[in-house]
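Run folding on both entries below.
>entry_1
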Amino acid sequence: MNKSLSKYHDLAPLLLRIGVGLIFIFAGWGKLTGIEGTQDFFGNIGIPMAGLMAWVVALVEFVGGLMVLFGAWARIPNLLLAVIMVVALLTTKMGEGFGAARLDLMLLFATLALAIIGSGKYSVDGMTGKS
């Protein structure tokens, strides 16, 4: 690692958390404020219990996104968000090619990376010693 950049090592999880957290907060908010459309969409793509699952996904994305953003108990929501991304890839993106799936793939790998490395120094978890 370049020594001049190594002093910023603790910023990497923060930057990842900001990007991932904001994307999921906005995605979850969009689903929550248009829950009927989300339920219909889930039903159309064959997700079981579409009405319930729309609420579950919307809440996990919104609340999980907030938890990731602030780095609060973030390993759990990152794993849940990774599961959501796998389901999204399998149900809506696989037949559309890499171009349609690239954001979902990036979010999948980013959530897994954050679950592995933790929230980092500049987080609620970091301040409480749980990072």
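>entry_2
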Amino acid sequence: MTPTLALEKPEALAALHPRPIPEEKNLTSLFQPVLSVKKMRVVGLEPVGRALDPSHRRFLEPRDFFRDRDCGDSTFKLALERFFHQKGLELFSGLQSQMYDPLLFLNIDPSTLDEKVVGSGYLLRQVAELSLAPRQIVLQISLGRDWNRPLVGKFIRLQRQDGFIIALKDVDAGRGRLDAVFRIHPDILKVTDRLTRGLARITERQDDFRGVVKQAHSLGVSVMAGALEGEEDALKALEYGADLLQGGYFTRNYGDNAVLTLGRKARMMFLASRYHRRMARRIQMDRDLKGRCQAAGDSLFHLFRDKPAELLEKGLSSQFPLYPALECLYLLDDKGVQASETPCNEANIPERKRFLYRPAPRGTDHALREYYYALSTGLGRHVTDPYLSLNSGNLCVTYARIMENPMGGGDYILCSDWNCSKI
């Protein structure tokens, strides 16, 4: 099957463009797989339009077609985009029986969208002619190019009504850009390649990547990481919560098979094995850390048990020489309000941090803290996950345990903060 509109035929493209356009037989789409390591399978394919230059026997990239033409020529770009969409859809249609519920990721250049294109229904007709369902098609719209936000928003609304899946790509960690992304509420977002290249070794990119993933997941949006060229970057993206992976690590040196190969499967299995081992080791380390904090916290609890509040507060600061990993001790009443001051171990708080991080004073409300919420549900004690302490600026774990008030009235909660690097 060949494209049906004359505008999308190669000879028509040649009339629009001064550079020689290859014959139709030399125009094709190559598939890049989109993988879910957690599902251990290829979940989708992204067609990338290519043209074979017969004289040099090499593939040309689409951007080579624009070298001698104004990049604002949306008519030619739209024609070329639709032609390669057709090629990708045709190839994808023939692969239905070889894959389990596959998705096709089609790239949409926002610079080609105008009022006529947005409401044309052309893409829906392309899909219907090949007996494909819109729910199988993911429309990827790049944020890295100039785009008319009202037109793109209208396009997304119409395509979503037709049943297409919406993805935004080239998403970065900039606050303003992220806010714009989540106002559109895509089904999938693909982080910019800048964040994934060198992800395993560049701390700033790790922080940005985790921030994007955390915000996306809080809104029910899946995250794709592309441009993964090495195993360590792929593993780190998986560890930080990426749902879908793509890149040269999964496609390099696999012969002629465009969809599934034993080599790709083996790499997914190896990556999944390393991920599971790493997560198991982390869980074990967290369990060991919490166990040590609980043992030390129980020891403190027994020292203070059955003492009235006045004696409790006087004895808090005397415990630091006995427990070098102990950072802070404080009491809460049964409403979650701090009932004591917060003595801190001065040896664990650098001088430069003492103005930035200050111990919480008496009367501070802790009712929204994890440990108070856990105890208010009926638990007698609780150990938190590691977090950045606002008392000291260090990575800490809080162990909280309910203490009976020997004088009657409401119970107290003894809270102890433990330095994760020293416990």
